[in-house]
């Protein structure tokens, strides 16, 4: 099998220039969520289907999640199958990438090229979506194309999934597929999500923290700052509440897990907003947002309950009747919630295979750990399907002058091929 892997790796090298051309063509097409006011992924999905229409995939399926805000009312999800040596009975390896990208942001900060005018320079391809997730999308395509060119059937069936809506929650992507088409997934599937990693490709993510974003809205009564007794300063109430909530959460949920970096749960106040636009106004409203990344052992319901109990205590502390109304009011609004499933077993087959592939191809020992962010590997873990997040990345995602390193794309394609062959 090592000889076969050598042949496939060499063929991937031969396809290097074509890989770059494919990435360039895909970057040219914006695929930004309607959540940001754009049309979605339809055009990019059509381009991808056109590119692979003559490739000898055994099956290509398109699942359009309906979304009336998007072009043609569709958020496309593409599955391309290349069967293993036992045909449809082969063990299956999913490689999932996403076709959507984030908005370009401040255009003045794009100093190398414009976001959707890709530029190849110094061994890199610049453009929005180049690294996130174009690099890995193209790598997965050419891991398979190299086998096709050589007439090689891998040990495992490869399912390349190109999905929508990863950047805004996966409601129209992998989440929709799992809800509407559960028959597509099997408990013994192996899953690679190449959408996170480090610069030398030695980090394998097997766990994620739970994510909870919530907004605290405090309402008092606006008043001139020289006569504070006539109103209720929402800013002071919110400061008191935020300080004590921050202290409570850090003290109560303080256990550590060395699988993660940082090893603790984190609770960060991130955004504040108030209507006061003058130094002499004591505001009647104040908002503060918390970003919580919580170890899987803790319940997000417990954290929300603690926040609500504290809100009642603070309300009582500042309680005041003004014009027949009891103030302050404190409202807690959940902005985003993702309850982390159990981690992928560090000794599971996909982890062992990936470590072996990196050892054979790069002579490197990979480490296994958890992250504070969220990926759609979590969707598979909820189904008890072991999934890993891995890629070789300079971590340029969402930044101006985003780029993909060509060498990373080519070398990652070899690793992807190894996962199917070994």
UniProtKB/TrEMBL annotation:
One GO MF term attached to the UniProt entry: metal ion binding
Which cofactor does this sequence's record say it needs? Co(2+); Zn(2+)
Q: Does the keyword Metal-binding apply?
A: yes
Q: Where is this region: Disordered?
A: 259-279
**Recorded family membership:** Belongs to the peptidase M20A family.
Identify the InterPro entries for this entry: ArgE/DapE, Bact_exopeptidase_dim_dom, Peptidase_M20, Peptidase_M20_dimer, Peptidase_M20A
* Record flagged with keyword Zinc: yes
Q: Cite a single Pfam family from the UniProt record.
A: Peptidase_M20
Residue ranges of every copy of the Peptidase M20 dimerisation domain listed in the record: 206-318
The protein's name: Diaminopimelate aminotransferase
């Amino acid at each position: 099998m090592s000889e076969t892997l050598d042949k496939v790796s060499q063929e991937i090298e031969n396809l290097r220039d074509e890989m770059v051309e494919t990435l360039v063509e895909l970057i040219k097409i914006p695929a930004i969520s309607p959540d940001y006011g754009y049309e979605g992924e339809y055009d990019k999905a059509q381009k991808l289907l056109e590119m692979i229409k003559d490739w000898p995939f055994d099956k290509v399926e398109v699942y359009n999640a309906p979304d009336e805000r998007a072009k043609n009312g569709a958020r496309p999800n593409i599955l391309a199958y290349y069967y293993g040596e036992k045909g449809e009975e082969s063990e299956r390896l999913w490689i999932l990438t996403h076709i959507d990208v984030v908005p370009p942001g401040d255009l003045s900060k794009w100093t190398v090229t414009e976001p959707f005018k890709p530029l190849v320079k110094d061994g890199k391809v610049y453009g929005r979506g180049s690294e996130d997730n174009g690099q890995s999308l193209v790598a997965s395509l050419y891991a398979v194309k190299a086998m096709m060119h050589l007439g090689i059937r891998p040990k495992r069936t490869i399912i390349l999934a190109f999905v929508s809506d990863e950047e805004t929650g996966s409601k129209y992507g992998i989440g929709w597929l799992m809800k509407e088409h559960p028959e597509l997934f099997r408990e013994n599937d192996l899953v690679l999500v190449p959408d996170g990693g480090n610069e030398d490709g030695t980090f394998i993510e097997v766990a994620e923290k739970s994510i909870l974003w919530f907004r605290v809205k405090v309402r008092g009564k606006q008043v001139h700052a020289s006569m504070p007794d006539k109103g209720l300063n929402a800013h002071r109430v919110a400061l008191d509440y935020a300080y004590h909530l921050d202290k409570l959460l850090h003290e109560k949920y303080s256990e550590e897990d060395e699988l993660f970096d940082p090893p603790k749960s984190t609770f960060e106040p991130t955004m504040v907003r108030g209507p006061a636009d003058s130094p002499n106004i004591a505001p009647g409203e104040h908002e503060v947002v918390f970003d919580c990344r919580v170890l899987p052992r803790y319940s997000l319901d417990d954290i929300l309950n603690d926040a609500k109990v504290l809100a009642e205590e603070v309300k009582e502390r500042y309680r005041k009747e003004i014009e027949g109304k009891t103030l302050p009011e404190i409202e807690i609004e959940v902005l985003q919630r993702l309850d982390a499933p159990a981690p992928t077993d560090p000794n599971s087959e996909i982890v062992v295979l990936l470590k072996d592939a990196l050892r054979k191809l790069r002579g490197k020992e990979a480490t296994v750990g958890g992250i504070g962010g969220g990926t759609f590997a979590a969707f598979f873990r909820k189904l008890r399907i072991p999934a890993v997040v891995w890629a070789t990345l300079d971590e340029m995602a969402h930044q101006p002058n985003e780029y993909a390193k060509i060498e990373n794309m080519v070398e990652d394609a070899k690793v992807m091929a190894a996962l199917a062959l070994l």
